[in-house]
Structures are given as C-alpha cells and as structure tokens.
# Entry
Amino acid sequence: MVDNKSKVTILDIAEKAQVSASTVSRVLRNSAVVAEEKRDAVMQAIAELDYRPNIFAQSLASGQSMTIGVLTQNFGSPFYDGILQGILLGLEDSEYWPLFADGRWQPTIEQQALDLLLDRRVDGIIVIGGQISEEILQKVAAKVPLLVVARQLQTMPNNCLYLDNFQAAYQVTKYLLDMGHRDIAHLTASVVYQETVNDIQQRYRGYQQALRDAGLEPDPRLVVEGNLQQQSGVLAVEMLLSRGRPFSAIFTANDQMAFGARLALYRRGIRVPEDVSLMGFDDESSAAYMVPPLTTARQPSVPLGQVAAQAILQMMNGRPPELPVFAAELIIRESVSRHR
Amino acid sequence: MVDNKSKVTILDIAEKAQVSASTVSRVLRNSAVVAEEKRDAVMQAIAELDYRPNIFAQSLASGQSMTIGVLTQNFGSPFYDGILQGILLGLEDSEYWPLFADGRWQPTIEQQALDLLLDRRVDGIIVIGGQISEEILQKVAAKVPLLVVARQLQTMPNNCLYLDNFQAAYQVTKYLLDMGHRDIAHLTASVVYQETVNDIQQRYRGYQQALRDAGLEPDPRLVVEGNLQQQSGVLAVEMLLSRGRPFSAIFTANDQMAFGARLALYRRGIRVPEDVSLMGFDDESSAAYMVPPLTTARQPSVPLGQVAAQAILQMMNGRPPELPVFAAELIIRESVSRHR
DNA sequence: CTGTTAGCGCATTCAT
DNA sequence: ATGAATGCGCTAACAG
# Structure
C-alpha cells in the first residue's frame, strides 16, 4: 500500500562504502571486529544515505524482535501508568522497545492481547496486574521470559515483582491507631475481585492484623466492600452510616474510593478531619490536592516499572532477575486528626 | 537468544493440507478464491498444528507492517489516556495494531519516538498533541499517512482532529456570566507553552470573547499564567489574591489547575462556591469527586480517539478522512453559585 | 483455481 | 578480518 520508505538497503551501503554486505552488517550489529577504515567508511555511507535497517528483515534473519511486550490493564489508571513510565525509563538505554497491549481487566481480552504479543514475537513479556489465570501465565512463561508486576503469584514467585501490601496497610492502620483512633472503618473490594487481585486482600489483612496487635478485634460492621471505583466509595460510606456503628476514621483500600468517600461525607455535612479522619492508599496525584489533602501510602510505581524493565532484561540474558519486594511509604497530610 | 517459538511454518501447513504454500497464504490473507475443500483442509491443518504466521516474514514480503504508530505525551495524563483508549477501541476490529511511543512533551524525545515508529515501518501514524514542529510533521506526512489529534495545525488542516476549544471556553465563560459573575479570573498557561499547544490559547480567546460579547473588557489583572500542573494552580491563586483585584469566579484552562486553585482557596479559608465559584476544563475523572464537585467542560477524549483510529484507517486506504470538529459539553456541578 | 519461481533485507555460517 | 553463499518465512507475480 504505502511504499515510499527509504529504499536504501544494506547493499547500497555496501556499495558506497566499497565493502560487502556482511561487513556492513557486522558494523551495524557490532558482531565482529572490522578494520577501522572500513568501519568509518560504512558509518559515513550510512549517514549520507540516511540508511535505516529494516527491522523485519533483521528480526526474520536473527530470530529476535528486540521488543518487549507489555500487557497493561486500561490506560488511564494512575498506578499502572506510573509503571508504564517506569518501564519506558528502564528500557531507555537498552536496545529494546516496548510493545503495549491493553487487557482492560477482562481475562478474555487479556488472553487475546497475550496472543497478539506472542504473534509479534516479542522477546520478553511484562504483565502488569490483571486477572488472567496462573495456568495460562505458566504456559506463556514456557515460551518466553515472563515477568508479572504488581501481582503476587503462588506458583511462580520468581517471576513476580510486587509491593508488600500487607505491611503497607499495617502501617496505615497503625498510624490511625497511634493518632488515637479505635473505631476504624475499612473500604475494601468485593471478594470476587480479591481472589484475582491479591493486593486488596493483603491490605485488608494488614488492617486486621494492626488492629489485633493493638488489642482490638476487627468489627465486620466497619468493613464495606466496593469495587475500587470512586463511586463505590460514595456508596460504601452511605452504607457505613446506615449501619449505625460509630467510627472516627476510614481507611480505604485505594485513593479512588477515598475520593468517593470524601464526597459522601461532604454531602452528609461530616467534616474531614474534624469529625472523621480519612486515609487512602496509592498516592494518586490528585490526593495531594484533595480538600483537605489526603493522607495515604505511596506506592513507588515508577521505580517498580524501572526495576521490572531491568529484571526482564536480565531474564532475557539468561540471568536470574533481581526481584526486590517494594515497600510503601506513608504520606502524611491533613485528612487525619488526632482523636479526642 | 530465545527461540522456542512455534516452529510451525507455512510449509508444514502446506504439506499437511496437501496443497502448496501459496495456497495456504491465499487462505490466510483471503487474497484469492480457493476451492472450498482445500480451504477447509488448510484451516484444519492450521488449527491442528496451532500455526501462527511469522509477522516479520509477512511484513518483509508484503511491505506492510499492519501496525499504526501512536505518539503520545506521557502515559498517565487523563485526557491523552482517554484518546489512547479510544484508539484501541477504534482499531479493535481492524487488522491493525497500535504501536505506542511516548514523547514526554519534549520535542527531542518526540523526534526520536517518531523515528522509532518509522523504523518499525508503521503503516500510519497518529500523533497526539505534542510540541514537535509542523515542519517535521510535514516530512513525516510525506512518508506515511499522518493524523494529528488534539492539536490544530496551520499548514495541514486536513490531517488534524481537534476540539473547538474556543467555543468551549466561550460557553464556560458565558455560563459564569449568566450566573451573574462579572469579575471572572482565568488561569491559562504561559505563552511559551501556548505557542505549541494552541488549545490553551484558544481557551483564553474564548474567555475574552465571551466577556467582550457581554460588554466587559478583559482585565489583565485577572489573568494568571501557570503550566497546567496542579501546583501551578495553587501559585496562580496566591498570585491572584496578592494583586488585590476582586473576583467572584475563576475559570482554569484545565482541571488540574482547578484542583490546585481549590486547595489554595481552602488554605486561605475562602469557600467554594459561597465566596468564589470555580470552573475547570476537561472533566477529568476526579473532577466529579472534588469537594464540592467541579463544574467543567467535558472533552470527549475516548470518541476522539475512536474517530482518529477510523480516520487513519481511511487515509491508509487512500480515502480522504472524515474529520469532524468536536465540541465540548458543559458539565454543571456544585462549584459554581449564582452571584449576589 | 493452483503450483512454481523469485525475491523481501538482513544475519550468519563457511571459507579464505 | 572479510566476502560469498545460504536461508529466515512469507507474498506476489507468473504460468498453466
């Protein structure tokens, strides 16, 4: 169809530089020592003719595509986008280029996206979150180096890079306890969701453990399940209020639900933090601009992505990847006040 | 390096189906009529051997890559991510697959990213926003079908898809006027930024025109330049207050600055909307959960992306693309009150 | 309608 | 150190 590409091929370079195509290829890939003068001649010819190697020919001949498939879930989610940025950074001075696919949190689509990446002969795959079964991931891993980010897999711990969500949620809850709160509500996500996205479950557990360590028994009436969207935060607070069980603080499993919760409290005329303290999780960029600014836990998503990129590169080199467990950092802002 | 791909080739299929490779290719691409029985045999062989064509061989032989390059600016920006989602949707049932590159709003990086896309022999390119010069874009357009989204180019109007920002800002301002406001401040972006991102300039003009049409002369003391980031909204409001020129409403060129403005007002004890009304632009997802919810203008970013995808497909088919000018929709929420 | 014949542009032996 | 030869897997004329 379109075919006005630079028709300059390796042969044109060879001719202009008075060498063979093989030699040009060698200086291109740096795959063997080439006499300096010839190398220079080649370089010059390349510059003069503005030669760009044909990636398809390269890939076909070499068997490598120099691309890394990245399966994400919905562009537009702050946390995941941060990871993408990190991957971009981490790949920056490698020879590899990321190929993105969007799974939209739907296993079927994730599956298709994975197939597409495989069809594109990616040299490695980074899967970010998602709900696709471990079984399928195992099969993929058998074909190509695979790294799963922001999700903890039971069966392949050496292919995962994640955050210590338990510990982070524990800290969040402990902070509220330290501020004198005893009746701390928690907005989590429904069990269905938790089964695949372990993170949320871990946060719930961290919350419970912190309470127990403080000598308090978790009260189920203080826990509401949402779906991680903002709107569900609104509904969850309504639900909470309707239960009549008093509380002085709310800890939501993600910032988005905290935004919703904040709005619901506002609508009810409940002041934050004077009447109720609020804590989120994720440190989305708008959290700092909430009124009042939201206390939350920062997940280092960009570094996560960067490390992920490095790790997959290591895997492709046959080395075992370095897989640190990331910790979250508490971001103290005005949405929490001392109780009593 | 990695080479455990399905080594099944077109020849294996040919053999198993008792036909020639060409025939297999023909049923694969549907490029010619094939006897039904042979077609079935081929299909079956493909299924049984789980054959996946090698994309590189295909591209090398056909000259098409079946990919569309998408140059975006920073993953994580709500508006741009919306466009990405739209593109994904619009490409869904085409044979094309998007290849994303990130320009980070830096002309040099944008340039590199474009080169990379070109190297990957994309069949078409969609550029979202960005600051890269029109001159360069023209050169790119000479090589491959090019569509520029969310940016209005002087020299190539038939390659652009954008929103009528002037009209939208006019509406926003008129709404405030209708609500009785006369002293309306505006947060825009610095001139440097405006030169490349025309949108912001258009919004500024729409604001001015609406005032004039209402018989008011725009007051430069009511205009502050930020950089579109949240933090600049905070500073801009500080600046505004320090000038001592009274105002009863603020219209920010984007929601992010409105978030910052909201925080600054909160810190100063100025109530929204009782003391000052606030309007944003973009309808980012958090705008609805601001306290109080932000009145703003919705830019249909997902539809924009979808139409962009269709348009580039049309261009690649040699047809002139349909390029509607999108209009923004006013989203009325509680951050604006009637004046006096 | 179908098989045969040539490449597509490059990487990689194998000689030298 | 370098050139010649071969093939990566597929598509696209070309005959028939």
About this structure: Residues 19-23, 26, 32-35, 38, 57, 59-63 of chain A lie near DNA strand D (CB under 10 Å from a C1'). Chain A touches chain B through 57 residues (CB under 8 Å). The CA atoms of residues 28 and 264 of chain A lie 61 Å apart.
